[in-house]
Structures are given as structure tokens and as C-alpha cells.
Amino acid sequence: EVYRASTYAPVNIAVIKYWGKRNTTLNLPTNSSLSVTLSQDDLRTHTTASCSSSFTDDTLSLNGSPQDIAGARTQACLRELRQLRKDVEAQDPQAPKLASMKLQIVSENNFPTAAGLASSAAGFAALVRAVADLYHLPASPTDLSRIARQGSGSACRSLMGGYVAWEKGKQDDGSDSLACEVAPANHWPEMRALVLVASAEKKDVSSTAGMQQTVATSTLFEHRAKEVVPKRMRAMEKAIHDRDFAAFATLTMKDSNNFHACNLDTDPPIFYMNDVSRSAVRMCEAINFSHDKLVCAYTFDAGPNAVIYYLDEHENEVAGTFKGLVGGVKGWEGKRGQAVKDGAK
Ligand code: DP6
Predict the structure, then answer these.
(1) Is 344 helix (H, G, I), strand (E, B) or coil?
(2) What is the ipTM of this complex?
(3) Is 292 left (phi over 0), alpha (psi -120 to 50) or beta?
(4) pLDDT tens, 61-115?
(5) What broad class of enzyme is this (predicted)?
(6) 220 exposed, middle or buried (CB, 10 Å; 0-12, 13-18, 19+)?
(7) Closest atom, ligand 1, to C-alpha of 33
(8) Please, what sign has the CA dihedral across residues 171, 174, 175, 181?
(9) pTM to 2 decimals?
């Protein structure tokens, strides 16, 4: 007999960035972060997890190619999930003994992997959710965020929809380093995200390596983690609760720029944004200037692709203008999304 469960997990894009770990094994961050979950129709991972006593090995595939399942991060997630299943089996002698069976995990992304489009976030969130469903675990999205975080830090924010905070926590074992909902998507459903793909190539410096180089060498980063982010987290939560787009936009752009400044302050310096990225910044500035108020905000992760946040009422001006750019500048490709109602399911 083969037991099976399937799930979709969405991509999330941080507006207050996670960058830097205080514990690299458990992926415990130096600062808290906050993200918006994007629509599953646009950017998502679909994962099917199966187990059977007839399987001989744990296996993992992504977009049809076999992947290394022995990696420490994947193993950490599977170990935690199997332990929770063992707890279920210990309480219910009738429950099938799934924890001891080998797992087959099959994932598909509908977007370029490792191009700075948060593929690891959706990937680990989907893996954890799919195995948790397969095991019928009585775990909440926040419980599962503790596990997904060990796969990839940003993945813990993809287990829920809407506006999500990852509180850095204080404990050494990471038990309080969890994601929680700041507001559901329907609190501010007018939010839109336009993903501008400047390059779908694999990035130069991985987030994992880049952030630890920043922690080791940047004094600007020390200031960011201690002084800048804690205040900004509270201000961003308030902007979201108040549905104050101008405040949301100011904080989002400032945080993206502060994060990229820390990369520049890293030794050797790290450049994720390129000329095409900078043209998106200027375009955003021009649109805001012509409206005499903030109607769009850019943010960049560890890659050159831009994500532009705006409200539905400005769809024509914002998406329309960027579509002009998409046509005009080689290498750009636009994709639109909106905040979703649910996280991984
Ligand atoms: C710039 O979550 O990919 O996207 O924990 O090492 O897997 P690991 O890093 P990862 O880093 C994401 C960094 C970021 C900002 C963010 O998503 O908050």
C-alpha cells in the first residue's frame, strides 16, 4: 500500500528582510522579518509526499530531476516530522506505522529555481506541509514553521497566507523562532505584487553563504540588526494594521535599500542588483513622483529581480507602466500576483 498527500505552497516576498543567522544549524536569524505571501496561481511549489513499506530509499525530485535528500537541512525537517509521527503512533496503536517507511517526495516549481525568487521558501514549506499531511500530524502552521525554518529560514513564512512575521526568538533551541500571521490576506486584499524577472539565471552568491559573510564583515549590518529592524518591524506591523500604503511603501523600499547597502558593506562586497534592477527603482520613483504620493514600492531579494507592491486601484498606472518597460528593456518579463487567502494547503 502507498500512502500519499499533495500540497501547494506559495512564495513569500519579505518587506523587512531576513539576512544573517545567529545559529547556522537551526537557521536562527539575527533579526525578525516580515513578508507578504503571493498568489499561488503565479509562483508556487507543488509537492506530493508518499510512503510505503515497499520503498527502499528516501528520494526527492525537483522538476523531474533527482535531488540530494541526504542534505542536512532536508534531513533535519524529515527527522522532526518522523518524530511527530512516532508520537501519533505511540498514542494510537491502530495508526499505520508510517514513520518507519521510506519517503518519496516529488516537487514541481512553476518558476525559475534559485534565481532569487524565493524558490527555497516555497520548496521547504511545501515539503514540510506535504509530509505533515501524509502523517496526519495535529500541527498548526506555526508549529510547522519551526520545522520548515530548519530547511530554509524564509520557508517558515510560506506556511501561512497574507502578512506574516517571523519573530527571531531568544531561545538557543529555536523553540520561539516561529512565523505567525500579522494579518490575513483579506485584511488588505487590494495589495498586488508584480514580479519583474530581470534574470532567471542562478544567482552568484547563495543567500546562505552571502548572509554569513555579511554577519562576519559588515558593521553596517550590526547596526541594521540591532537598531534598524526592531523599530521597523513594529512600524511595518502598524502600517499593515492601518492599511497605510504610504507607510508600507516607505518602509519596504528603505528596508530593501538598507539590506543591499549591507551587501555592499560586506567584504568582499556582494552585488545582487544590476542595471536592470536600478531601472526598476527609477521607474518606481518616477511613477510615485508623477502621482505626488506613494503608489508603488520596490523590493529586491538576493538577486536582480524586482517585486513591485501596489494597490489594485493603481493597477493601470503601475502595472501598465512596468509593462511598457517589459516591452522596452530586454530581459524583463512581468508576472502579476496578489496576496493569497491561505498559506500552504
Ligand atoms: C534576501 O531563506 O534563502 O530572501 O535560511 O540560508 O536558506 P537560508 O536563506 P534564505 O534567505 C532569504 C533571504 C532574503 C530575505 C528574506 O526572504 O527575508
Answers:
(1) coil
(2) 0.99
(3) left
(4) 999 999 999 999 999 999 999 999 999 999 999 999 999 999 999 999 987 664 5
(5) lyase
(6) middle
(7) 18
(8) positive
(9) 0.93
